[in-house]
Amino acid sequence: MRQEVKEVLQENKNKEDRESEVFGELVEVVSTKSTSLSLLTSKDRDFLLSPTGTQVKVADLEGKVIGLYFSANWYLPCRNFNEILVNAYDRIKTSTGSQFEVVFVSSDEDLNAFNNYHSSMPWLAIPFSDLESKKSLNRRFDVEGIPCLIILQPNKTKDGAVFRDGVDVIYRYGASAFPFTEERLQELKREEKERYESQTLVNLLTNRDRDFLLGHPTLKQVPVNSLTGKTVGLYFTAQWCLPGVKFTLKLISIYHKIKETLLAESKDDDFEIVLVSSDRGQTEFDSHFNTMSWLALPFDDPIAKTLTKYFDIQGIPSLVILDPDGKTVTKQGRNLINLYQENAYPFTEARVELLEKLMDEEAKNLPPVERHAGHRHDVKLVSEGSGGGPFICCDCDEQGSGWAYQCIECGYEVHPKCVRAVENGPITDA
């Protein structure tokens, strides 16, 4: 009898524990759900502001995915991201209706700056005057830098309610990231992995919303699949990058020489370049692209950031070469252009080996020591096997490898083609 009573008591306790767990989960969901909205209110305010100044009740956001957007007009990276976020927001709203909303949390310096910046946004905002709410949100989500986009999920438990990398996923996936759940992001990562494992030009350069590149004149649309069968250079650069501006001038000349040579020799292959821009705004991009003769990804396309990560671009300008099947030939296109000019085409390993042999033959006829007008000491001819190696030419500021003229004392190196020989005598310090 006593054993039966103990079993009944234990069963009741287990039942209570299960009910307590379920109740706890329900409380956590309700608490998280209500807390997300309560974060957007204050003791004296239960509304947000539209770009036109209209008051919108916070309660109207019930059940929506909310993006808390920490940003400021005075910071250029914020303004750049703002254009991309507006594009993604419009696409999400078009496809999902009212299931998504962004709330701007301003770090602007005054009311006029806030109003001007908010007028460029299609979403809601914490009133500029509510300093305490803005401070509270920054503390709550430990915002250390802007732009920052915190995603709040409705009807999620505590662990799944907050996603902090909104800026990164918007840059990377654009509107496709919605609803920003772990499941959706894992799905996108799998798709991305599959795309690049079977690397083709179409996989690299298109997304769900776009199957074209921009060309000239007037930004005409050029189908990506029209590049199939061509050697393609992905050119990562920006108008604000001075080395990029300098290299672009050289690349334009080389591009035309390669095209002219292929046409003159009536070869079946062809060469094209695609700009992958890091420009800071649409106007800057348009101005930059108009100086070029080739194609480009659209300015605000998330594929640009994906390509930068995929090819591990550490700095610009950078030129990645793809073969006619879309496979990577080399990430050293810029270096090969600097070394071999138009002769670098088609940039293959076999071509580079041939050019290196030719350079070795030419080096046999070069003076072992030169007096260079750009340096105060003699410079000595070296190769990778005799003290040389990859370097930045001190005369043209471009990359180099293989043969070079070097001053070990000063750490000074120049391309052989950059040497301006002078007769023995005093040389002005460089």
TrEMBL record:
GO terms for molecular function: protein-disulfide reductase [NAD(P)H] activity. The keyword NAD applies. It catalyses: [protein]-dithiol + NADP(+) = [protein]-disulfide + NADPH + H(+); [protein]-dithiol + NAD(+) = [protein]-disulfide + NADH + H(+). Belongs to the nucleoredoxin family. It is an enzyme of class 1 (oxidoreductase). This is protein-disulfide reductase. The keyword ATP-binding does not apply. Its EC number is 1.8.1.8. Keywords: NAD, Oxidoreductase, Repeat. Transmembrane segments: none annotated. Residues 171-360 form the Thioredoxin domain. Pfam families: Thioredoxin_8 (PF13905).
